[in-house]
Amino acid sequence: MICPNCDRVDMFSVSREKTVYEYRNVYSDNKKEHKSADNHHKYKGPWKLEETVVSDEMTLRCSACETDVDIKKVKGIGEIKIDKAKGVVFVNDFFDQFNVSGKTEKQRKGDRRIKKERREDNESQDK
């Protein structure tokens, strides 16, 4: 598959957002040994991990240009299904490849609706 942004081949990856919350305690008393020469309060110790939050949302990303990929712009792919344990399923747009009329999906749905209404009208007149 080709990236629609940079035209590189087979550079797709799945990404998710991970947020890490850390903190450092600060000496807030006015003791001389807890302040620096320019009056900054010193830290009590190193950074401590409070919480790590991993997003459930996963997106398709191009590793070459480092952008999120809009799956509608990838030729030959209709949709993707991402499973965090099993992997990724790319569903091809098999029937869209044979769009001989040159009409968009919206136009074809409108044509189908009109044909269905005509068929129903003909059936009601026959009764």
Low-confidence stretches: none
Q: Structurally, how many domains make up the residues?
A: 2
The overall pLDDT, averaged over residues, is 83
> What oligomeric state do the depicted chains represent?
single chain
Q: In sequence order, what are the helices and strands, one letter per element?
A: EEEEEH
Estimate the helix proportion, in percent: 10-25%
Number of strands: 5
Count the DSSP helices.
Answer: 1
The helix-and-strand class reads: alpha+beta
**Strands ordered across the widest β-sheet:** 1-2-3
Q: Report the major sheet.
A: 3 strands, antiparallel
What does this structure look like?
The structure is a single chain. With 127 residues, the protein is α+β, with helices and mostly antiparallel strands. The chain has two domains: 1-93, no CATH class; 96-127. Helices cover 17% and strands 33% of the residues. Strands 1-2-3 form a three-stranded antiparallel beta sheet, with no helix packed on it. Strands 4-5 form a two-stranded antiparallel ribbon. It is elongated. The mean pLDDT is 83.
Quick rundown:
Helices cover about 15% and strands about 35% of the residues.
What are the SSEs and their pairings?
Layout lengths: L11 E12 L24 E15 L4 E2 L8 E7 L3 E6 L12 H22 L1
Antiparallel strand pairs: 1-2, 2-3, 4-5
Features:
3-stranded antiparallel sheet, 2 domains, alpha+beta, two-stranded antiparallel sheet, single chain, about 130 residues, about 15% helix
